[in-house]
Amino acid sequence: MLSASVPNNTAFHPSTFILLGIPGMQDQHVWVAVPFCSMYILALVGNGTTLYIIMTDRTLHEPMYLFLCLLSLTDLVLCSTTLPKMLTIFWFRSHLISYHGCLTQMFFVHAVFATESAVLLAMAFDRYVAICRPLHYTSILNATVIGKIGLACVVRGLIFVFPFVILIERLPFCGHHIIPHTYCEHMGIAKLACASIKPNTIYGLTVALSVTGMDVILIAASYGLILQTVLRLPSKDAQFRAFSTCGAHICVILVFYVPAFFSFFTHRFGHKVPPHVHIILANLYLLVPPVLNPLVYGINTKQIRLRIVGFFVGRR
């Protein structure tokens, strides 16, 4: 049915792709869209509110809040890269996406994911310096350093992801154009090719393990050093607050990385994983963190929580 709406294009690159949605759940797309749409609205409101409060309150222009501001911005871009198109697939059966539109979406999905991974690493480093080197905090993380870290996060994502576009451009597709997914991502597109995708697989594994994998290792090391310092605190109450904060951060980090790595490795090794399970998890790692991050990093922070309460009370 879907293929009939696409021209019979057997050129090197198809003019359009068809995003199938969630395989095996096409009949439930209308209802599946409801929780996804609700989570998207929560992500927009939560991150938008966090950005507004930090940007309009000069007392919050400190390293921790500036990193949180960058995290909220990447969260907004991350979920907005895929959710609007996904909802049009679910509600309006708008499955078509142009070839270049698909590559653009693929680029931003992977680039923003890599950027957010780097931002989470920067925030872990910020907490490490604040707790383990408090006397040197302002000298280590001054405005210039924060600006350079933010720029490095973005540039790193762009540099490592741009080769994905080149690797896809070199592939012939021989008329294959149906992607069993809700959005365009590197291996999902590459698997449609009628040529060897070994370079795509090797480079994808290299980026996942050496870039994102290294971020995970460094984040774990930072929180390990933080916990060592916290255990030396004389006050049990201070230990409890630190443990609860770090525990919440670690849970959000796991929600970000575990589904992402599951989706990534399923493309290569998980041939027995049901397609709908793979696709749902691939959507969750782009949507759940943007919903949870404002709650864990923002509202869980006393200064931001007080300003949110003050903002809504003042509106009455």
UniProtKB/TrEMBL annotation:
Record CDD domains: 7tmA_OR52B-like
UniProt GO MF annotations: G protein-coupled receptor activity; olfactory receptor activity
Main location: membrane
Transmembrane helix keyword on record: yes
A single GO cellular-component term on record: plasma membrane
Cellular compartment(s): Cell membrane; Membrane
UniProt membrane topology term: Multi-pass membrane protein
Entry keywords, A to Z: Cell membrane, G-protein coupled receptor, Membrane, Olfaction, Receptor, Sensory transduction, Transducer, Transmembrane, Transmembrane helix
Transmembrane segments: 30-53, 65-83, 103-125, 145-168, 202-226, 246-265, 277-297
Xref: InterPro entries: GPCR_Rhodpsn, GPCR_Rhodpsn_7TM, Olfact_rcpt, OR51/52/56-like
PROSITE patterns on file: G_PROTEIN_RECEP_F1_1, G_PROTEIN_RECEP_F1_2
Gene3D superfamilies per the UniProt record, alphabetical: Rhodopsin 7-helix transmembrane proteins (1.20.1070.10)
Domain of life: Eukaryota
Every G-protein coupled receptors family 1 profile domain range: 46-297
Protein role: Putative odorant or sperm cell receptor.
Family indicated by similarity: Belongs to the G-protein coupled receptor 1 family.
Name of the protein described by the UniProt record: Olfactory receptor
Species annotation: Erinaceus europaeus (Western European hedgehog)
Gene that this polypeptide is encoded by: LOC103122824
